[in-house]
Predict the 3D structure of the following.
Amino acid sequence: MTEATAPDHGPLTGVRVVELAGIGPGPFAAMLLADLGADVVRVDRPGGPGLGIDPARDVTNRNKRSVVVDLKAPDGPCRVLGLAERADILIEGYRPGVAERLGVGPEACRARNPRLVYGRMTGWGQDGPLADRAGHDIGYIAVTGALGMTGGPGRPPVAPANLLGDYAGGSLYLAVGVLAALHHARATGTGQVVDAAIVDGTAHLTSMIHGMLAAGAWQDRRGANLLDGGCPYYGTYETSDGGHMAVGALEPRFYAEFLRLLDLDDLDDLAGAHGDVTRWPELRTRVAERFASRTRDAWTTLFEGTDACVAPVLSLREAPHHPHLAARSTFTDHAGITQPAPAPRFSATPTTVRTGPARPGADTEDVARDWGVPGLVSPPSNPQRKASS
């Protein structure tokens, strides 16, 4: 039995997913479903999606299989519809209206398969004044207010890579949405369209902050609040060697332990600074001076095993070697690539990295056989021959 056809593992075993290739949040959502055991077939376009990295190292395509279909060819849409007819979920990330123009929109797919859940991943959503405009993560999180909460006062907001918009506000909401719709489809026999917009998901992530704002417990400005770096016992500090430590000593008992380990607990006035916002600048100065007196490793050793809620700020290459993450196998090595292991974890249906990144078109014959779509491997039509015959 080949690796591609080996039994799946995970709670979504038996669920079939078609992913129309793109970049960003769509592929990550499909990877999450694949990690959970779904049979994800990625429909790559000729020439690839243009991500610019070696497909063999694109971890977001792990646990998937790939076929190549030119949707602009005469028989391209029919091939995708053949897959959609046998799928439970389809994911696409085109601008609104593009899938329809290509012949693989929700109506065409669900005409062949009424139970299909059709997941649409966009930045702006399927409607609204900006729906047909181009965009990227940073713009989506900017208009939701989320980006404006990052960074220090008097400085520009800090771009949190593409984690907050593309993946948290986009991929995760798409995955939750299509699985909820799948549950409904299996109960009723009727699928539906899931409109997952990054602006909607990112705005939803700020729910607690909006509650705090309404209650007067949050100031609508950067670096002035409990969780945005404004609080001196919830933030980061530089160490003597240029490293950084992250502090999250919010509760009084954790704060007391934090001061004790910093050798600041003998200063009775600092104990009262915990709840006194006017004293925060002074406290920040004292804490910064202490952290600047030792290396990151020295502070890591000092705080290790305590409830002071202090941790070293690690780089991407350092993170897999952290003792706790190593003990939990939070990262795994597969095909020579160190990468995060599937999450979350399941007691009865464990997940794993079964296969490396799918190579474009490498699984066409296997998918055609397994899904019963023989037309997937038939020679493409030749428009010029048809025109001359």
